[in-house]
Specification:
The complex is a heterodimer of chains A (484) and B (450). Helices cover 20% and strands 39% of the residues of chain A. Chain A is of the alpha+beta class and 484 residues long. The radius of gyration of chain A is 24 Å and the shape is globular. The termini of chain A are far apart. In chain B, helix 1 packs across helix 2 and helix 4 runs parallel beside helix 5. Chain B is 23% helix and 37% strand. Chain B has 2 domains: 217 residues, PmbA/TldD superfamily (PmbA/TldD fold), CATH 3.30.2290; 224 residues, no CATH class. The chains are: A alpha+beta (484), B alpha+beta (450).
């Protein structure tokens, strides 16, 4: 399988060589795409090379390598779009795809020849000396083997360890009907560790991990993977003693980092431009209104170096940005791709993303987090007489139309008289997006971003994202345990 | 090798793998076309077409194995793929029970299960668009309170799968699928509620009519209007068929041989035990003609079959592929699923909870105060312990009647206890999906709200 060198790779030339195309073919294809009455069109080329390795029962059982490649042609006219995708890319298949995509537009356009010009992305957020694919296989296998040994040595109650390492490099090229050509080379690493703990016939599991658009050495530097495996092991061990979670409305304190999934579900999805253009979001038409307590400022920032949710440009070639969604509790902006930005009369925000060439772009989050406040985390806990402290979460989900969202705690504790006491079993928390954040009464000074394993699903498309949160106190949220 | 048949490509890969020293190998090749059309507020919104093909090679070097997969079908790339798979297998650890199934386990006949409708590949986007428009219009016209729409959508696909292995197996089959849906938005007192309805089938002619889909979607959105929270309580919970199917889905995860040998199933050690009442039976059946979960052979070339998983309340079988069966000293149940890029796992085929003889109306009538669940949210299920906690919405039942809509609540319990306390099974089983159930009533769960 052809590995590609990170330092010298130029996406435009890469795709021209790989699919035996020329600049002339790109110009003809995008010219044909925009030839009818269309607002814009784009071509998207993708080459994704990935490896994954997984360990269980003390041995690395699986090693997989995958290559996927293809192209998508999209034509946008008003609020309509046509899209065609193929994984066999040639001048001829691009011509057929273009014919299909442009049927959405009425005939009789007056667009003429387009000459393409390459532009480098504005950012360079993940310059790597070596792509993760270039690292020797033996080093990746050894890492997993070491995780197994270290986790079992950490506590004799750890009875099994499942660890998987995924590395990839995605090369993309966007050719826009303005003539703009932008490419990017996107590395990604994800290490996931699950520990099973067992004692007195009770069994529990804990999961953690991390990664980002980083060198492979990131995982081992500063013993990061040891921290992740201890988090997974501790979660499994603590859950062995967990009592039933409480049920009903109570004060909830969320810990820093991954609990930021609250923002992703409670407000993030509801602020995506497509739902707001169609006015099907609980946040539609509410720019300038109060949607959170004044302690809350929430941003979506795709420009943080090496983060899993970061990108030099989105999948429409727009540079990513730091977009303020909520400022001191006031709703400021939506997340936009080109089509929805155009229809709403605003600028694209660099949030047009697609899972692959086989999917159409839509507004998506990058790294979504709340800025730090002034409170000390321990002071926040002290002020809670009875409540729940949630330190870690699994996934969440939202109904953007009525605003109801859930997220599921995988590590939580009771707060009794201002102190964190007993661990409780996992439970789902449910709230209403437009008012959940108005109940935030304290924001800690300990903002942390997650460790880099988040994936967001929307309309059948998965993309890597990040979340972050300082410790926060929410005065009233429904906790879905069994102890009423 | 673009001009060669999928079978020829598979055979070439097997021979290349052998040439590079593989002791065993298997190949999956998948190719397909898909169409997706969407309309919104009476206008076409999108047309999307894709063609895709992908293949995966698993090579064994003794008890070590690895997989390479690619969308590049050029001869050089395929030769490289085979060499790479064998080399990659060398870096993994030897795993005693790994390997292809024995030849005597393989399917000897490949039944025609009527999984392919040639009309789907002939379908034009205009016809599909018309159905979408009809479905959406039926929803929009149903009531003045339907004020907006996320549209009507049609999707279809045709696939061809070829599987070949060095144990002598080689066969292929075609499948098709199609679906039509509508997603209306209802408004009352300034708050919006959205719901959907869909129909998914292998044959175009079997899809529910656009008018019926639209009307049902509107009815579902309308009945949510005015939803409120209820107080925290322990009450009976009735799951509508689609929500009950999600419980059968959790069962599927727990009876998977992979979950069992890894020790991450709450049903470990329960084989032969009574885990549900007598009147509950759950069957996995992979050879039902025309069904969405059917296939003529599994991901390792074994015949699909009928496996009673719960037989009158008793956990009578787990579901296995070859690997997990060997791990647990059992035999494969023909439930190997195989994607091109990964080793086989276990998946149910058509997994259904057999219909009972009580109408859903009578089940609701049996509840004096409780919850009728029509939507579940989130991932709050612990596969190791069976602890269950999910967001829910639906209708509150008072004195045997659906009284008012509820939302922003959770339901919680433990799946082992929930299964053991199923109180009623509805007569309304419909094979709407590959995992399905009739209406189910659970004796008691914790509903958390205000």
């Amino acid at each position: 399988m052809s590995d590609t060198n990170a330092g010298t790779l130029e996406p435009r030339q890469f795709f021209l060589d790989r699919f035996a195309l020329s600049d002339g073919t790109l110009e003809d294809t995008i010219g044909n795409a925009i030839a009818r009455k269309a607002d814009f069109a784009d071509l998207y080329f993708e080459f994704r090379s990935s490896e994954s390795f997984s360990l269980e029962e003390g041995i690395v059982k699986k090693a997989n390598k995958n290559i996927s490649q293809g192209a998508g042609v999209r034509v946008v006219a008003g609020d309509k779009f046509g899209c065609a995708h193929t994984d066999e890319v040639s001048r001829e298949t691009l011509r057929i795809a273009t014919e299909t995509a442009r049927t959405i537009a009425d005939s009789g356009g007056d667009n003429t020849g387009i000459s393409v010009h390459s532009t480098a992305p504005r950012h360079d957020l993940y310059p790597l000396t070596h792509t993760p694919l270039e690292v020797a296989l033996a080093d990746k296998i050894e890492l997993l083997n070491h995780i197994d040994i270290a986790a079992r040595a950490y506590d004799p109650r750890i009875t099994n360890v499942m660890a998987s390492l995924g590395v990839e490099q995605k090369i993309i090229l966007v050719v826009h009907s303005s003539g703009l050509v932008v490419g990017d080379v996107q590395p990604l690493i994800r290490l996931s560790i699950t520990c099973i703990a067992e004692e007195n016939g009770v069994r529990q599991q804990g999961t953690s991990g991390g990664g980002g658009r980083v060198e492979f050495s990131f995982v081992t530097e500063d013993d990061r993977y040891m921290k992740w495996l201890e988090t997974a092991a501790d979660q499994a061990l603590r859950n062995l003693d967990a009592v039933d979670a409480p049920a009903g409305n109570m004060t909830v304190v969320l810990g820093p980092g991954w609990p930021g999934v609250l923002l992703h579900e409670a407000v993030g999805h509801g602020l995506e431009g497509d739902f707001n253009r169609k006015q099907t979001s609980a946040f539609s038409g509410r720019i300038g209104e109060r949607v959170a307590s004044e302690l809350c400022t929430v941003v979506d920032d795709g420009t943080i170096a090496n983060r899993r949710g970061s990108l030099n440009c989105d999948d429409e070639g727009t540079p990513t940005g730091r977009n303020v969604l909520i400022e001191n509790g006031i709703l400021r902006g939506y997340l936009q791709d080109r089509m929805n930005a155009r229809l709403m009369g605003v600028e694209p925000t660099g949030n047009g993303r697609r899972e692959s060439f086989g999917h159409a772009p839509m507004p998506r989050m990058t790294n979504t987090f709340m800025l730090a406040g002034d409170s000390l985390p321990e002071d926040i806990i002290k002020l809670v007489a009875n409540g729940l402290y949630a330190a870690n979460f699994g996934g969440g989900q939202v109904d953007i139309t009525n605003g109801k969202f859930v997220f599921s705690a995988t590590e939580a504790y009771l707060i009794e008289n201002g102190r964190i006491t007993r661990p409780v079993k996992g439970a789902t928390l449910i709230g209403n997006g437009p008012d959940a954040l108005t109940k935030i009464s304290m924001v800690g000074n300990d903002l942390a971003l997650d460790e880099g394993i988040g994936t967001c699903g929307k309309d059948g498309q998965s993309v890597p994202v990040g979340v972050g949160l300082p410790t926060i106190k929410i005065d009233g949220m429904t906790v879905g345990g069994t102890q009423s | 090798m673009s001009d060669q048949t999928l079978e020829e490509i598979a055979a070439f890969l097997l021979s290349e793998a052998k040439r590079h020293g593989a002791s065993e190998a298997d190949v999956v090749v998948v190719e397909g076309d898909s169409l997706s059309v969407g309309v919104r507020l009476g206008e076409i919104e999108k047309v999307q077409r894709s063609t895709a093909r992908h293949l995966g090679l698993r090579a064994f070097a003794g008890k070590r194995s690895a997989i390479t997969s690619s969308a590049d079908f050029s001869r050089e790339s395929l030769a490289h793929l085979a060499e790479d798979a064998v080399a990659l297998a060398g870096v993994t650890a030897a795993d005693d029970v790994s390997g292809l199934p024995d030849a005597d386990q393989l399917a000897s006949e490949i039944p025609d299960l009527d999984l392919y409708d040639p009309e789907i590949s002939q379908l034009d986007a205009e016809t599909a668009t018309r159905w979408c428009l009809e479905a959406e219009a039926a929803a929009m016209d149903a009531d003045d309170r339907i004020t907006n729409s996320e549209g009507g959508e049609f999707g279809s696909g045709t696939h061809r799968v070829v599987y070949a292995a060095s144990n002598g197996f080689q066969a292929g089959y075609r499948t098709s699928s199609c679906s039509l849906s509508a997603v209306p938005v209802a408004t009352q007192d300034g708050t919006m509620e959205r719901d959907y309805w869909y129909s998914a089938k292998r044959r175009l002619s079997e899809i529910e009519s656009p008018a019926a889909i639209g009307a049902r979607a509107a009815e579902r959105a309308l009945r949510r209007l005015g939803a409120r929270q209820v107080g925290t309580a322990e009450v009976p919970v009735v799951f509508d068929p689609d929500m009950a199917a999600s419980l059968v889905g959790h069962l599927a995860g727990a009876v998977s041989g992979h979950a069992l040998y890894r020790g991450v199933s709450f049903l470990e050690g329960e084989l032969g035990n009574k885990v549900m009442p007598d009147f509950v039976s759950i069957v996995d059946q992979g050879d039902i003609p025309g069904a969405l979960g059917s296939k003529p052979f599994d991901g390792e070339g074994l015949a699909t079959r009928r496996t009673p998983v719960i037989d009158r309340g008793v956990l009578s079988s787990y579901l296995f592929d070859t690997y997990s069966a060997r791990k647990l000293a059992s035999r494969s149940t023909g439930n190997a699923s195989r994607s091109v890029g990964d080793a086989p796992g276990v998946s149910p085929t058509n997994l259904y909870l057999a219909a009972g003889d009580i109408s859903p109306e009578d089940i609701i009538r049996s509840v004096s105060s409780g919850l009728y669940v029509t939507e579940l949210m989130g991932f709050g299920v612990n596969p190791v312990t069976g602890d269950y906690s999910r967001g829910a919405s639906g209708q509150w039942i008072e004195n045997g009647e659906l009284a008012y809509p509820v939302s922003e609540i959770t339901i919680a319990g433990n799946l082992l206890e929930m299964f053991a306390t199923i109180e009623a099974v509805g007569s309304d089983l419909e094979m709407r999906r590959s995992i399905c159930s009739p209406t189910l009533k659970i004796a008691k769960m914790t509903v958390a709200g205000s």
